[in-house]
Each structure stands twice: as structure tokens, then as C-alpha cells.
Fold each of these.
Amino acid sequence: MIQLSILKITEYGPWTLTLGSDREHELQMLQASLYKEVQKLFSEKHCIVFLNRADEFFVVSNGLELEDHIQIQKNLEKLFDVKLTISIGYGNSPFEANLKAYEGKKNNIILNTEHNIFGFVNGKSDSKVTIMHLDVDDLTSKRKTNSPYEISSIIFDLYSKMSKFFLEKNSLTFFMGGDNFMVISNDDAKKSVQEFINKMKTDDNIFLNCGIGNASTGRDAVKLATKSLDTIREIRDSGKEKPEIYELSC
Ligand SMILES: Nc1nc2c(ncn2[C@@H]2O[C@H](COP(=O)(O)OP(=O)(O)OP(=O)(O)O)[C@@H](O)[C@H]2O)c(=O)[nH]1
Ligand SMILES: [Mg+2]
């Protein structure tokens, strides 16, 4: 079972207008500091936060109860002028958890009125998180023939294809910066990652490595996924034939 907590700035659109039109730099600074604080507060509780379109956050919140969310809200309310709404959901796949959180908010299933928390909490029971960390093999060599902006265009095209492919497997893809992506996965996505790697090779001449991590919390699953990816690099750099996929569990 995977639990997701989706944080969204409350009434952000109307609030942005109160800043006048010379506001974009202010909004960018606010979004960056908000992200820093949200990542700090949730990672302290063994969760991992994925930035979604800069003004929304998807948290793999396995193990967290309503009380943990209230504590985090209290901290954020002290630090920022804007408030956040939290929608919590869980399911057998990350997409289902996202739907459940969405329905919780839409149908006004209130968990805590004062701190704007909606949805359904699974907490600590039956916790299982799978994260895949995908990274382009030797992006550095592409930099020799492509300018920085052309590289970005290649990476965003890859992001779009990855997001569509894994959404069909009920999994959610996030861009982490550089040439790094993470997929909040389930068994279905894990089984099809080789198909995606092969497809990108054939269609776009992009070579990917994929580290997989399985654990009971988001942060531990990410740690193992990254460790798996680094293991692929170590095998490659030792001159042996490298696997494209490597998996670790705890
Ligand atoms: N978010 C995130 N970014 C990373 C990580 N490691 C590297 N990066 C970023 O990815 C960019 C590309 O670095 P690499 O992937 O190491 O370069 P590469 O030439 O593709 O080398 P290999 O991936 O080892 O084949 C770096 O400039 C960083 O911005 C990571 O673990 N997480
Ligand atoms: Mg790379």
C-alpha cells in the first residue's frame, strides 16, 4: 500500500494577483523556500517530497498519521503568509493513491478543519514503497554536440514520454533535475521498465540506467534506488558489462 499526501497552496491564484504585476521574482523565491521547508519537514519523518509544477508537492508519506501532518502544517503556518491544503490518499498503486487524495478533497472528506487536511489516512499499516531512479547514461557526451538549451529540450521530451508510459502502469514520474527522474512505482511499472529503456534506445538513441529501491518508507526507497543506480555506474566503471537495471530491498 502506498500513501500520498498532496500539498497545494490554498487560493494561490487570487493571492498572486495581490502582489501586482512585478511579482514573478517574488513568486519564484516563495516557491523555492516553500519547497525547501516542505522537503525538510517531511524528510525528517522518513518521507520524500516530489516537486510538481513548482507550486504543488507530492509526498510519499507512508508511515505518517494525521497527527504528523498537523505538526507539519503548524510549522508551515508559522513560516509563510500563504497556507497549504493537504489531501491524503492511499492505494495499491501510486495512481490510485493520487485519485483517492483527489476524491477526498473534491468530496470534502475533512480530516482536520483548522489545518486544511482532507482525505484518507493509511498510516503505518501494510507499508510498501517502490521507487525507480532513472538517469541518462553518459549525458556528458551529448553535451559535446548539443548546446545547453538543446539538452533541456531532449530531457523534457524524455520526461513527457516517461510520464505517459508509466502513467499507463499506474505510476507517477517526476523530474529531479539534471538528467534524473524518479518514478513512484508498483510491480507493473517495475516489470515494464526494460521495455521503456529499449524503446528510448531504439526511438531516440537515449541510453538509460534504472536503479530500483523497495522499502517501507519513501526516503529509504529513494536511498536504495539511488544506491542501485550508483551500483550500475560502479560495475560499468570497473570495466565489466553493466546491467541496465539494478534492484535493492530492505
Ligand atoms: N537530482 C539528482 N541529480 C543528479 C544526481 N546525480 C547527478 N545529478 C545531476 O545530473 C547531471 C548529470 O550528471 P551525470 O548523470 O552524473 O552525468 P553523466 O555523464 O550522464 O554520467 P552517468 O550518469 O554516470 O553516465 C549532473 O549535472 C547533476 O545535475 C542525483 O543523484 N540526483
Ligand atoms: Mg547521467
Amino acid sequence: MSETQHVLSLRGIRKNFGRIEALRAIDLDIDPGEIVALVGDNGAGKSTLIKIITGVHPPSAGEIHFKGERVRFRDVRASRARGIEAVYQERALGDKQEMWRNIFAGREVTRFLGFLDIAEQKRRSETLLRGRMGFTSRAITVDSEVGGLSGGEKQGVAIGRALFFDAELIILDEPTMGLSLMETEKVLGFVRNIRDRGKSAIFIDHNIFHVYDVADRFIVLDRGQIVGRFRHDELTREQLVERMIELHRAGQVA
Ligand SMILES: Nc1ncnc2c1ncn2[C@@H]1O[C@H](COP(=O)(O)OP(=O)(O)OP(=O)(O)O)[C@@H](O)[C@H]1O
Ligand SMILES: [Mg+2]
């Protein structure tokens, strides 16, 4: 394999839905410890791209390489098993369950004959909550029902869970949707945790201010194509917005 191994490499990814070309020849590399923002207008193909990465849809053409190996994920389970975890605004967690059940949903710790090791799961949840996630509120415990958490805290648990299970690549599709300013700040803090732990993330958010603050790199998608690639340190926030508008206009006349 190459000297600097990418976490993820996409080569010539296309996706057609009938006659709609949702994605056209996408090439993209993500490095370890990188937060990459995927930005673009409604319908640009952002969600479609992450659904291809996570195995929701097969690509119509092209290759996906994960940690240097060609992969073809049949479903979300398959991508998850390899270390790709997606976090969405909705569906992040089940509201009616206690926190510890949520953290282990789908990968319960069993002792023998499939009996759940509840004490062990609670212990690990506690470590995750206080240690890795930095939850300080004593009102929130592993026994708290998730429904009682704020939107930002729910996102935090979802991201924390992904880190806890050693996801290499965490995909966030609009994790701040519908959250207040304070809650959003919390979520952005949790996103920074991902980089601090040397893991990578693809971050989609309609609010350019959110992505600007946390991303190392910006990938601009427009009508199924990558039309711009920028590093955080080469543009101010205002310049990024200007460039996105210019690129979109250029695409319309082309
Ligand atoms: N399952 C599907 N069947 C048919 N067309 C689809 C499907 N999913 C997406 N599309 C189409 O593909 C294009 C890209 O959609 P996508 O959801 O990826 O955009 P997006 O960039 O995530 O937009 P938004 O910012 O609104 O979430 C759109 O034209 C959309 O209508
Ligand atoms: Mg979308």
C-alpha cells in the first residue's frame, strides 16, 4: 500500500437513480485525523454520497477503498463492521431507552448463552460518558432515558458511541439540524473530539458557519460533481461563501 494511507478513497463514483445522475465521477480521499466538510446546495448529492460510502446504496460505477482495501458494502451493517459509523439528526438514538442500552444497541456485551452483561455495559457506558465524552452534568447518568437529553447531548452520545467502538470514519449528516446555538456548540465540540482522537469525519451541515469552524477541508458539491476543494487555512469564512456562490453560478452557465 501507499506510504500515506488514506482512510477512504473514492474513485470515479457515479450514482444514477433512473435518469437522474445524482453523482458523476466523484474522486475523493480522506486522511486520518481529518474533518472534511461536504457542502453544496439542496440536491447536490451530499446525502447520496454518504449513503454510498455507508453501503445504503451501491454505486452505479466506481470504486471505494477503505484503509487501502477495495470494499463493496452490502449494507450499513457491513460498513459499520469495518469502522464506518454514521450519525444523523433523527434516528441517532432511541428515546424511550436508557442511555446505556442505547450505547450498546446492536452490539450488546453478552456473558454466556447470550445473557446480557448489564453491569459491564453500564460500567463501560459510564467510562464513555464521563471520560471520553466529558459529560459533566450529574443530572445525566447511564440510567437516564435518552428522551430526557437535549438534542446536542443526544448527538454527543451518538458520536461518543462511534468513537468508543473505534470507528475510523464518522459520517455526520446535518447533526446540528434543529438545535439551538448552545446545543450546536456542544455538537461542534464533540466533532472536534473525533479529530483529537486521530479519527476522521465527513461533516455535512447546511450552515456554513458550523462547518467552517470545525472542518480542515471543504469539498463543494454541485449537481453531482465536486466543483471546489479548499483547505480551512486558505480561505476566510466569507471567502468560502463567495467561492461557493461563484462556483454554483459558473455551473449554471456552463
Ligand atoms: N432514492 C432516490 N431515488 C431517486 N432519486 C434520488 C434518491 N435519492 C436522491 N435522489 C436524487 O438525487 C439527487 C441528490 O440528492 P441528495 O439527497 O443526495 O442531495 P443532498 O445534497 O443531500 O441535498 P440536501 O441538502 O437537500 O439534503 C437529487 O436530485 C435527489 O432527488
Ligand atoms: Mg441531504
